[in-house]
UniProtKB/TrEMBL annotation:
SUPFAM superfamilies: Radical SAM enzymes. Residues 1-25 are annotated as: Disordered. Keywords: 4Fe-4S, Iron, Iron-sulfur, Metal-binding. It comes from Micromonospora robiginosa. GO terms for molecular function: 4 iron, 4 sulfur cluster binding. InterPro entries: Aldolase_TIM, Lys_aminomutase/Glu_NH3_mut, rSAM_sf. This is Lysine 2,3-aminomutase. Residues 1-15 have a biased composition (Polar residues). The lineage of its organism: Bacteria, Bacillati, Actinomycetota, Actinomycetes, Micromonosporales. It comes from the Bacteria.
């Protein structure tokens, strides 16, 4: 019998370690401290001082309201083709009139040479100063688009008071803002009329409107949450806004008050005015004493919009006792509809500006907005792709605001016809106009993807049924 000989192990010589190849991450976080862009790079603001720039009054007086004023600011940095493109949009397609504070214009092409091409590609410009060439010519509007796509006006229980959810109301105190976004979901009421849209008007005097709100809320103790909006509360004279908020705080059943203001980003100078800061502190102290949650909800769509002044305004609100400052952005193609853009924005909000990323809404079904809207499947993919990077409490929910249903996380649909771009949703409550509808909770409600994102068979179906 042959014995098995032990196998001799020969040590291998030590070699220089070679780094194993790594695949990397789909998104690489790099901290980017906030910077206030140099406004003097614009010919029209070459001699504007810091004191002027940080004045809310100067910002309001120097808002850009028309093409002539924009020319004065930009000088010869962009060519005539841009102004012609803008004029074509203003004359026929725009649902919002132009109103852009210097603060917002200063975040367009902030750190590169301003050229026509750079301005056209800029994400902030794309939704604040839309031009005709941005919009689709095949499907500029979805066949089911409407000027009050969420039917908020239908659900008014008093002028400007929408009772849509069982325990929450939306209080529209006025119909103006310090800035007008091209994609505004309240384009039927907010802002000046345009050639494309003859706006509705609030008819009551503000004092009578506010009295009607308070009377309704006192008579409906099931409402515990009031979103105070408009328009934008930054356009309500502070003494009037403070009076309204103090009256809300006297109603024992109100437990949450949210102030909706894009101006925290678009006009942070307003929220840094001493009288506003002092008044906000009085309201915040009263809210805390009465156990009411007071928060500010703002609307930032791109990281470029965040500057040290915005962060200072947010921190000041927190310092005087506002419980939280949260962001509700809107998903838009060409602006932020990539995972990298969303993550850059969320990290800047949460890490640099002290603003909690809260929601990203899908752009609503309003006229001339198809170039901005994304399909539901795209929103679902974005929600998937941003998970795991941000802290859980600062990971925003991407929601679809379904007509007659309300906000739903984008994965909550019950059925989805991807070919025709029709998703179906259900709900668990009745709106204020459905109190007698016994079938409201058994229905399926439809939402529609932009038609240009559908496969050819789906687009052909819509072409065939365009007028149905």
């Amino acid at each position: 019998m042959t014995q098995t000989q032990p196998v001799e192990t020969i040590p291998t010589p030590r070699s220089t370690p070679v780094a194993a190849p790594t695949a990397g991450q789909p998104y690489e976080y790099r901290r980017a401290p906030l910077v206030e862009p140099d406004w003097t790079r614009f010919p029209g603001w070459r001699h504007v001082t810091r004191e002027q720039w940080e004045s809310a009054q100067w910002q309001r007086v120097n808002c850009v309201k028309n093409i002539k004023q924009l020319r004065t600011v930009l000088g010869d940095l962009v060519d005539e083709t841009f102004y012609a493109d803008l004029e074509a949009d203003q004359k026929a397609l725009a649902t919002m009139s132009m109103l852009v504070p210097p603060q917002m214009i200063n975040t367009m092409v902030p750190f590169a040479p301003m050229t026509t091409e750079a301005l056209l590609a800029d994400p902030v410009r794309r939704y604040m100063i839309p031009v005709a060439s941005d919009r689709r010519t095949d499907w500029p509007s979805h066949p089911y688009a409407s000027r009050d796509s969420l039917h908020e006006h239908d659900m008014w229980v008093a002028e400007g008071l929408t009772h849509r959810y069982p325990t929450k109301v939306l209080a529209e105190l006025l119909s103006t803002c310090p800035q007008y976004c091209g994609h505004c979901t309240r384009m039927d009421l907010v802002g000046n009329s345009t050639p494309a849209v003859d706006k509705l008007k609030l008819t009551l005097k503000p004092v009578d409107r506010y009295d009607a709100h308070i009377a309704y809320l006192k008579a409906h103790p099931g409402v515990r949450d009031v979103v105070v909006s408009g328009g934008d509360v930054a356009n309500v004279p502070w003494k009037n806004l403070e009076s309204y908020l103090m009256r809300l705080l006297e109603i024992g059943t109100i437990r949450d008050i949210r102030l909706a203001t894009k101006a925290l980003m678009g006009l942070p100078q307003h929220w840094l005015q001493p009288d506003v800061v002092e008044g906000l502190e009085r309201v915040a102290r009263t809210a805390a004493r009465r156990g009411v949650n007071l928060a500010i909800h703002t609307h930032v769509n791109h990281a470029q919009s965040l500057t040290p002044l915005v962060a200072k305004a947010a921190q000041t609100a927190l310092d005087v006792g506002v419980r939280d400052v949260r962001n509700q952005g809107v998903l838009m193609r060409g602006v932020n509809a990539t995972s990298a853009d969303l993550l850059d924005l969320c990290f800047a909000l949460q890490g640099e500006a002290g603003i909690l990323p809260y929601y990203f809404y899908m752009c609503d079904l309003i006229p001339n907005a198809e170039h901005w809207r994304v399909p539901v499947w795209h929103a679902q993919q974005l929600q998937h792709d941003i998970m795991g990077y941000l802290p859980g409490y600062a990971t925003p929910r991407i929601v679809c605001d379904v007509p007659f249903v309300g906000k739903r996380w984008v994965h909550m649909l019950t059925d989805y016809d991807r070919e025709r771009g029709i998703s179906y949703w259900t709900k668990n409550y009745r709106t204020s106009i459905e109190s007698a509808d016994l079938e409201a909770l058994n229905k399926r409600y439809a939402y529609y993807d932009p038609i240009d994102t559908l496969p050819e068979a789906g687009q052909a179906w819509w072409r065939a049924h365009r007028d149905d």
